[in-house]
Design brief:
By secondary structure, this protein is an alpha+beta fold. The chain has 3 domains: 88 residues, DnaJ domain (Helix Hairpins, Orthogonal Bundle), CATH 1.10.287.110; 135 residues, Urease metallochaperone UreE, N-terminal domain (HSP40/DNAj peptide-binding domain); 82 residues, Sandwich (HSP40/DNAj peptide-binding domain), CATH 2.60.260.20. It contains 9 helices and 15 strands. It is elongated, with a radius of gyration of 38 Å. About 11% of the residues have low confidence.
């Protein structure tokens, strides 16, 4: 035994710690430094020994009293004897089984009874589904076809007939193995690979599923996509996943929604954005125009003298709010089409029109602003 070990420091607990606090600290550290998880690591091996030594002492009232009085060196002498190792267990009702049940996932631990787990539910499935932005705005009912496992109707998922106790695990659903370590023998349990933890096997294999308990086939599933659904939204269809073990439920089907890129609209949360071109005359004199919305069309008033790049808001013309009342807005960015291929007369008229303005040209106004800024 090492000289003058601080058992409280080793476990990271206060000297006034209760037995429950000591047990909790031990469980955490025993898992961390266990040899099965740190194969060949001498430092972890030593820490594992120290943690065991400290906990076995501090959870035994008699040993703890002697340790508090004489320290770890004093534990070599007197009636208390040495600190207990793994073979001796801990005092004060310390249950080693609950440590190794969670550690190994089996439940055996030291001398623990076999535990037959219940039937396992089926696995969940994922299906990626793409819709249009219009369908996302209005909601839509769709039918999809998926190829998946289904419980065999011939044997009801048992894999055959004539159920009997599994000869490999004797009906326990788990098989036990014993592993020798420098600290003693460890008993662990794993799910029986022959019966998959059911504890039963069949006398006659099912001809339909060939003993698997399931058959793979295509199935039609109806789904309802609500208005306002977002990219990446997930819909859950209960019971449409894969079959579980006999007596257990099916898993679920999860539909992941993806939305096609729209030719004209861009979406930002519940708002929509679109660019609309207008003529030079409409920009000068103003107008009321009909423009598209995601669910139809609407009128938009263009004010006279509007500048290119101006964005106008159309309230409540965006996407509906998912599972709530109301809609987002539609934002319209105005672009102005410059006339092309003007004839001679049109060019002359435009020149006269330009001369009628006495104010400086836009480039001249910009130059004047820059010049003043530097002066």
């Amino acid at each position: 035994m090492s000289e003058n070990k601080d058992y409280y420091k080793i476990l990271g607990v206060d000297k006034n710690a209760s037995k429950e606090e000591i047990k909790k600290a031990y469980k955490k550290l025993a898992k961390k430094y266990h040899p099965d998880l740190n194969s060949g690591n001498k430092e972890s091996e030593q820490k594992f020994k120290d943690v065991n030594e400290a906990a076995s002492t501090l959870t035994d009232d008699q040993k703890k009293a002697q340790y508090d009085q004489f320290g770890s060196e004093g534990m070599k002498y007197g009636n208390a004897g040495g600190a207990g190792g793994f073979g001796g267990g801990f005092g004060g009702g310390f249950d080693m089984n609950d440590i190794f049940e969670s550690f190994f996932g089996g439940g055996g631990g030291f001398g623990g009874g076999s535990r037959h787990r219940g039937p396992q539910p089926g696995a969940d499935l994922r299906y990626d589904f793409t819709i249009t932005l219009e369908e996302a705005a209005t909601g839509v009912d769709k039918t999809i076809r998926i190829k998946k496992k289904n419980r065999c109707d011939e044997c009801d998922g048992n894999g055959g007939t004539g159920l009997k106790t599994c000869s490999h695990c004797n009906g326990q659903g788990v098989v036990t193995t014993v592993k020798r370590t420098p600290f003693g023998n460890f008993q662990t349990q794993v799910t029986c690979p022959h019966c998959n933890g059911r504890g039963e096997e069949v006398s006659e294999i099912c001809n339909s599923c060939h003993g698997k308990g399931y058959v793979t086939k295509e199935k039609t599933v109806k789904i309802t996509i609500p208005p306002g659904v977002h990219e990446g939204s997930r819909l859950r269809i209960a019971g449409e996943g894969e079959p579980g073990e006999p007596g257990a439920e099916y898993g679920d089907l999860y539909i992941f929604i993806f939305i096609e890129k729209h030719e004209f609209f861009e979406r930002d949360d519940n708002d929509l954005y679109i660019e609309i071109p207008i003529s030079f005359n409409q920009a000068c004199f103003g107008d009321t125009i009909t423009i598209p919305t995601i669910t139809g069309k609407a009128e938009l008033k263009i004010p006279s003298g509007i500048q290119p790049g101006t964005t106008l808001r159309m309230k409540n013309k965006g996407m509906p709010l998912l599972q709530r009342h109301g809609e987002g807005d539609q934002y319209v960015k105005i672009t102005i089409e410059v006339p092309k291929n003007l004839n001679k007369k049109q060019k002359e008229l435009l020149k006269e029109f330009g001369k009628s303005f006495k104010e400086k040209k836009p480039a001249e106004r910009l130059f004047e602003k820059i010049r003043k800024a530097f002066n």
